Amino acid sequence: MPRFEQDSDVRALGEALAALRRERGLSQAEAGARLDMTSQGWGLYEAGKRPGLFRPDVQRRLTAALDASPEDLALTAARITADAPATPPAKGVESGGRGWSGAPSAPRVATERLQLSNDDLAPWAASGVVLEFDPGRWPRRDQGCVIDLTDGGRLIRLYDRADADRLYLRGGPGGLDAETVLERSRAARVAAVIARLDP
């Protein structure tokens, strides 16, 4: 089946794009304006009616407009696919009465904490600061991240960007100006830092 037909994969990607946009509090017009695109053009991507949604370069453009990454899009789409009902929804509209509890939330992975023991990320975070991180969330550009390595080690850095083979990070013994390039095959888990708690 051609990718531009409405299948569950393209629907999930479109819904994921819409979810990322709503998380950032943007309308379709505001998101589209960041790319010199109309709200209708943006809406076609969210509706899964534009075949380019599967192209990595298009995903990078769209997610960059939302200060997100293609990895954020993929994680959100996977969550949407996992939460989708096994049977297709009935056609038409059903009313559950006057009350509405909102969309069901995806099960959240518990956040974790660790305390920094060096100044590799100063002034962003210094020794003694406790970082709270979410293993279910991919970091955005300039956001702290905790990377568990396949050899059992752990890196705490600022996320810069990623490509198919590498993660590009900032921070380390040389301070925030030092760049670290990490092969993706060495990363067992990448988690976004969601809070810095001063001692």
Automatic annotation (TrEMBL):
Chain ranges of the HTH cro/C1-type domain: 17-73
UniProt lineage: Bacteria, Pseudomonadati, Pseudomonadota, Alphaproteobacteria, Caulobacterales
Domain of life: Bacteria
Organism: Brevundimonas goettingensis
Region (Disordered): 85-105
Listed Gene3D superfamilies: lambda repressor-like DNA-binding domains (1.10.260.40)
A Pfam family assignment: HTH_31
InterPro entries found in the cross-reference section: Cro/C1-type_HTH (IPR001387), Lambda_DNA-bd_dom_sf (IPR010982)
Molecular function GO labels: DNA binding
Protein name in the entry: Helix-turn-helix domain-containing protein
